[in-house]
Amino acid sequence: MNCLICKGGKMIEGFETYFAKLGDSYLIIENVPCFKCDQCGELVFSLSVLEKLEKLIELYEKVQSKIFIVDYRQAA
Ligand SMILES: [Zn+2]
Question: What is the pLDDT of residues 4-20, one digit of tens each?
Fold first, then answer.
């Protein structure tokens, strides 16, 4: 799979940390499976991963805290 952004890069399968801002809070999800461009660093998540991330964001939006750090492998 080639990168859609820079066209030249290759998408390498790996794990990345995902950041989301929820109002005044931050959600950090570690070890999210993704593809990363080896040239420009563009990240692509699969649809099933994105759906899971959305569910996690919904879940943590309801909790009043400043920063959450979640490990994807334990939350998924
Ligand atoms: Zn790229």
Answer: 999 999 999 999 999 99
Query: What's the gap in Å between 19 CA and the centre of ligand 1?
Result: 20
Distance 16 CA to ligand 1 centre (A): 16
**53 by DSSP, 3-state: which?**
helix
Q: Where are the domains of the chain?
A: 11-75
- Evaluate whether 13 touches 45 at the Cβ level (below 8 Å): no
Answer for the pair 38, 45: CB distance below 8 angstroms, yes or no. Answer: no
The CATH number of domain 11-75 is 3.10.20: yes
Q: Model's pTM, two decimal places?
A: 0.80
In angstroms, the CA 36 to CA 14 distance is 7
- Interval between CA 32 and ligand 1 midpoint (Å): 19
The length of the chain, given as a count of residues? 76
